[in-house]
Specification:
heterodimer, A: 306 residues, alpha/beta, Rossmann fold, B: 328 residues, two-stranded antiparallel sheet
Chain lengths: 306, 328
């Protein structure tokens, strides 16, 4: 099953189990532009799989209204870059409503905001803005790296009752793997490879780049999976063992979420920490320019020894 | 008919009394418009709907408890008219644990879900997509209730205005858009910032029909709302009410609004919607209703000032369950 199909299955199961789950966004009736909604409108009808105009603010804002009125909407934004047209609705409305109304209402919605570089699609379709959302109280931030996680974590996100910014990767839709119908918990990282020299914390597509990196170091690779709340226990216990930390992400390094993890680990454990993220440049169209913003295995290998 | 006139007048008198008391309690509450910060019972920006009472009263008299509304930063009137408890509202303005939002929202986010009031909003036009979503949920669940979305004249220049109207019409939602036009966008006359033929023309261009009404004439608002809301309830899709009124006070309570033409303001004050509303009841009845409203406000002020503050740990509650406790 692909990463996209796994997400589709997660939504299908959620919609079968709970009549209050609805999905809304552009092009869903045709299955979504990445086929991540394929067959859902045929099964559940256009009333629950809602095709919307290109009205990002109202897609998100309507989802908030639906949630306050008792539904559990799943919102499709296609790419995180487009969700910038709905920032008020995510940050000022979805994230704040429960608190500022004194707990009178909750906003159980999942906003799917795919991140990452999408080859050749240039500056407005290539961003990884997870740090923006991790910064906002009230939001849960999830970034699945595998088909299995895209099934299990999306199901968990729909069930959790909080507003979740769910960040798939724009280039993982076609990734194939076995997927079993198992549940997962939000906020739990996964150790993908054990090692003793250095702990490498990463998420989303960088998980695969890290796993493929050739290095002489014995690297413990952790897929963070949920950025907020992030799994300190797993990261701390690994760093206590290895004594060093490298955080790798595809997003711009400056003020990225890696800084948060590195600073917390340095404060708590007093060990050497490093970050590796993209330079603070817009992603260029031409491959030579795009590659400057890309985190590769070679760059990870260099960061591991520097 | 006198029962209805009394009821409308009572709602308006309660809003007026509430706004006057809130204004008084907010002096020194915010540093803006040249005012400096000092001790005040009501902190922060307070947007008063004084002078706009007829819109809230004339629309909300048509709503049942389970109908829903969304409101604006100037939302006390809508909240009261929808049936919220004045005591809990004043408690909220005072930031007390007894407040409708338990002191977490204040004036700008005042809400009372128990009477279908889904929240005032600190962002212009932000309630419009939320109202659309609530109405869409009603459609999905085949419910009979309706939603009323209050917004100001400034909102018509924001994108969500167009998006919300378009969406509501596409799905023929059970939704009344009420443009409460007080003619001022903070300190700027909205007319100077708005091209074309105005809010109703914009709505009609999208296929949402409606009427323009004197928003200071509560009987006109009542009768226009009656017509529009019965269309909505009978499944004829979203409708639009453009109610032209006037903001008696400044943008916030400490704003003396010196930027306005004095003649414009005195004309508006002579056209006080409460005077008009009193014309269909006896003066003794009007006096009695006013006294009741003022006495209710006194009780609300007393209860609010005696109510406990929220415990500091409340700052950490009602945020999120996933990751609750991880604050840094």
């Amino acid at each position: 099953m692909t990463y996209g199909q796994a997400a589709c299955e997660a939504v299908r199961q959620a919609m079968r189990n709970d009549q209050q789950v609805v999905v809304l966004g552009e092009d869903l009736g045709r299955g979504g532009v990445f086929q991540q909604y394929k067959g859902l409108q045929q099964e559940f009808g256009a009333a629950r799989v809602i095709d919307t105009p290109i009205s990002e603010a109202t897609i998100m804002g309507a989802a908030v209204g639906m949630a306050l009125a008792g539904l559990k909407p799943v919102v499709e934004m296609r790419v995180v870059d487009f969700a910038l047209c709905a920032m008020d609705e995510i940050v000022n409305q979805a994230a704040k409503a429960r608190f500022m109304f004194g707990g009178q209402g909750r906003v159980p919605l999942v906003a799917r905001l795919p991140i990452g570089m999408w080859a050749g699609s240039a500056a407005q379709h290539s961003q990884s803005l997870e740090a923006w959302f991790a910064h906002i109280p009230g939001l849960v931030v999830v970034a699945p790296a595998t088909p299995q996680d895209n099934y299990s974590l999306l199901g968990a996100a729909i069930r959790c009752g909080d507003p979740v910014v769910y960040m798939e990767h724009k280039e993982l839709w076609g990734m194939q793997a076995e997927v079993s119908p198992q549940d997962a918990s939000l906020g739990k990282a996964k150790i993908l490879r054990e090692g003793k020299d250095v702990t490498l914390v990463t998420w989303s597509r960088m998980v695969h780049t890290a796993l493929q990196t050739e290095t002489s170091k014995s690297v413990e690779i952790i897929d963070l999976r949920t950025l907020w709340p992030w799994d300190r226990e797993t990261v701390f216990s690994s760093v206590k063992k290895t004594g060093r930390l490298l955080v790798v992400h595809e997003s711009v390094q400056a003020a990225g979420f890696g800084a948060e993890i590195a600073a917390t680990v340095a404060e708590e454990l007093n060990v050497p920490v490093r970050r590796l993220g993209a330079p603070r440049i817009p992603v260029g169209y031409s491959k030579t320019l795009e590659d400057e913003a890309r985190i590769t295995g070679e760059r990870i290998a260099q960061a591991l020894v520097s | 008919m006198s029962g209805r006139a009394e009821s409308l007048y009572r709602t308006m008198a309660r809003i007026r009394a509430f706004e006057n008391a809130a204004e008084e309690a907010s002096r020194g509450g915010v540093a803006a418009f040249g005012a400096s910060l000092s001790q005040a019972q009501v902190r922060g920006p307070l947007h008063l709907s004084t002078g706009q009472e007829a819109v809230a009263a004339g629309v909300c008299i048509h709503l049942a408890k389970d109908d829903l509304i969304t409101s604006t930063h100037r939302g006390h009137g809508h909240t009261l008219a929808k049936g919220a408890s004045m005591q809990r509202m004043m408690g909220e303005l005072f930031g007390r644990a007894s407040g409708s939002n338990r002191g977490k929202g204040g004036s700008m986010h005042i809400a009372d879900f128990s009477v279908g009031m889904l929240g005032a909003n600190g962002v212009v036009a932000a309630g419009m997509p939320i109202a659309v979503g609530a109405a869409h949920a009603i459609k999905i669940r085949s419910e009979e209730r309706i939603v009323v979305c209050f917004f100001g004249d400034g909102a018509v220049n924001r994108g969500p205005f167009l998006e919300a109207l378009n969406w509501a019409k596409l799905h023929e939602l059970r939704l009344l858009f009420v443009c409460e036009d007080n003619r001022w966008s903070a300190t700027t006359p909205t007319g100077a910032m708005t091209a074309g033929e105005g809010p109703l023309a914009r709505a009609r261009a999208i296929g949402v029909p409606g009427v323009e009404v004197d928003g200071n004439d509560v009987f006109a608002v009542d009768s226009a709302s009656s017509e529009l809301i019965s269309k909505i309830r009978s499944g004829k899709g979203p409708q639009f009410l453009h109610a032209v009124t006037y903001r008696f006070k400044g943008h916030v309570s400490v704003d003396p609004a010196h930027y306005r033409d004095g003649e414009e303001v005195s004309r508006a004050l002579e056209n006080d919607p409460l005077f008009f509303a009193a014309t269909r009841i006896s003066s003794s009845e009007a006096g009695r209703i006013q006294e009741e409203a003022e006495s209710e406000v006194r009780l609300a002020l007393k209860a609010a000032s005696e109510a406990p503050w929220p415990a500091p740990e409340e700052a950490y509650r009602d945020i999120q369950d996933t990751g609750a406790g991880q604050w840094r």
